[in-house]
UniProtKB/TrEMBL annotation:
A Pfam family hit: ArsA_ATPase
Domain ArsA/GET3 Anion-transporting ATPase-like: 39-310
Region annotated Disordered, chain positions: 334-397
Name used for this protein in its record: Anion-transporting ATPase
MF term (GO), any: ATP hydrolysis activity
InterPro entries: ArsA/GET3_ATPase-like (IPR025723), ATPase_ArsA/GET3 (IPR016300), P-loop_NTPase (IPR027417)
SUPFAM superfamilies named in the record: P-loop containing nucleoside triphosphate hydrolases (SSF52540)
């Protein structure tokens, strides 16, 4: 199979859809990635605000319509994603998305991580009912499960492990939590697991484990000095809550770090593919570069980079400089102090060609008319030729102002394209081996399945931009 990884190939090479030049990244073939039955998990990661959630949902729709049984795990609480899939609301239970994949045996399910509920499920699964009730009612646990640093990332990976263990879907697509740094996604679960399994929590458990007078003696001898200091900082009631929580969680300690490590190994497995999602902006691509390097250091399989919201133009051959020069000439047209022929000057500015060559290939236009591509008819672009009541001078001036405005807009667009291309080129220079899919920007927000399909089409047939000189 074309999508299968060949022996000795890097993950970058597996889904690369083209050759690699000196400064051009290989293309990322999304359909090969999604069609590969060995691909069981796709993780969309990157900094916030770059379109990770939309990309994950679009990949899910496309994979399901190509015959895969897919579940998309999203972290984004925005209702618009659920609405775009035709679901009233997403929760911690996978919900079937109707009208996707019905014709070819595929299915799409979607869910949104409920961080606290996932933590509750973890407790209920690993503690007896009485101890589970004590843990769930503990104030420290309630704070921990609702927003402790790293909990969201840990629970996202816990939910991923649960979904993979159920084996009900042949493809799981994960939208990683939004965070200040994309690296938090890899680091936070380990940090939380280390905290919950660490020496501090175990010291707090010691009095409860020893019990009775011996426990009090132990506490008075050694632990009281530490706990007394912590109580002054945190407050006595919070300290008691933490100790009660630690005692109730006694049988579960050791499991947190173990499960975090197991999920880490799952992310390193050959059936997992990471997609780094970014926008063509300096900060987003800098974060993407960091993530690419971190994935490589941790030996995690990188499929490629998805570059969202890339702008294009149907007239890239007209540079910003020439467009601005042409706009300036049009704004001076009709000025008696300007001795130059405005038509010849405009043609030179736009085409960058010799005036004599322009005269040889002139269109059948009246003086001061504009080219009409379908017919070459001056009347279609020159209102004064059709309406004798319109002053030729005022009509020409109005048309020239409009044309000058359009040329300036085009110049601004070309400057944006140039900035995006330079930013992309810097990333490619650092990581020329990473396959890239450039996704053309949509004119509006995605709010339905049709919009997700449009993003999927752009992912599968990425924007091709020729390398501009300079």
């Amino acid at each position: 199979m074309s999508g299968a990884r060949r022996k000795g190939a890097t993950d970058n090479e597996s889904y690369a859809g083209g050759g690699m030049g000196m400064d051009v990244a290989p293309g990322l073939d999304i359909d090969v990635l999604l069609d590969d039955p060995q691909t069981r998990i796709v993780v969309c990661c990157g900094s916030g605000g770059v379109g990770k959630t939309t990309t994950a949902a679009a990949l899910g729709v496309r994979a399901a319509e190509r015959g895969r049984k897919v579940v998309v795990l999203t972290i984004d609480p925005a209702r618009r994603l659920a609405q775009s899939m035709g679901i009233d609301a997403l929760d911690n239970i996978p919900r079937r998305v109707e009208g996707v994949g019905d014709g070819n045996g595929g299915e799409l399910h979607a869910m949104m991580l409920d961080m606290k509920r996932t933590f509750d499920e973890f407790v209920e699964a690993h503690a007896d009912p009485e101890r589970a009730r004590a843990i769930l009612a503990n104030p420290f646990y309630q704070s921990l499960s609702a927003g402790f640093a790293g909990t969201q990332e840990y629970m996202a990976m816990e939910k991923l492990g649960q979904l993979r263990a159920r084996d009900e879907w042949d493809l799981i697509i994960v939208d990683t939590p939004p965070s200040r740094s994309a690296l938090d996604f890899l680091d936070a679960p380990k940090r939380l697991g280390s905290f919950l399994d660490g020496k501090f929590i175990k010291v707090l458990m010691a009095p409860a484990k020893v019990g009775g007078k011996a426990g009090m003696k132990f506490l008075n001898v050694g632990v009281s000095m530490m706990t007394g200091t912590v109580s002054k900082v945190l407050g006595g009631q919070l300290m008691r809550d933490v100790q009660t929580f630690a005692a109730a969680m006694d049988t579960m300690f050791g499991g947190f770090r173990t499960r975090a490590e197991a999920t880490y190994r799952l992310l390193q497995a050959p059936g997992t593919a990471f997609l780094v999602v970014a926008a063509p902006e300096r900060d987003a691509l800098r974060e993407a570069a960091y993530f690419v390097e971190r994935l490589a250091a941790d030996q995690m399989p990188l499929a490629g980079l998805v570059l969202n919201r890339v702008h294009g133009s149907g007239a890239e051959q007209l540079s910003a400089e020439r467009a601005l020069a042409a706009a300036e000439i049009l704004s001076l047209t009709g000025d008696p102090a300007d001795p130059a022929d405005p038509d010849d000057a405009l043609a030179n500015a736009v085409e960058g060609s010799d005036p004599a060559k322009n005269d040889a290939g002139a269109e059948n236009l009246a003086d001061g008319g504009f080219v009409d591509p379908p017919s070459g008819n001056a009347q279609a672009r020159n209102p004064s030729a059709a309406d004798p009541d319109v002053s030729p001078t005022s009509a020409d001036t109005s048309a020239e102002r409009l044309a000058a405005g359009l040329l300036r807009l085009h110049a601004e667009r070309m400057q944006v394209l140039g900035r995006e291309q330079r930013t992309h080129d810097r990333f490619t220079a650092l990581h020329p081996e990473v396959p890239v899919a450039q996704v053309a920007a949509l004119p509006g927000d995605v709010h339905d399945l049709a919009g997700l399909r449009a993003i999927g089409d752009r992912l599968a047939v990425p924007l091709e931009r020729t390398k501009r000189a300079g």
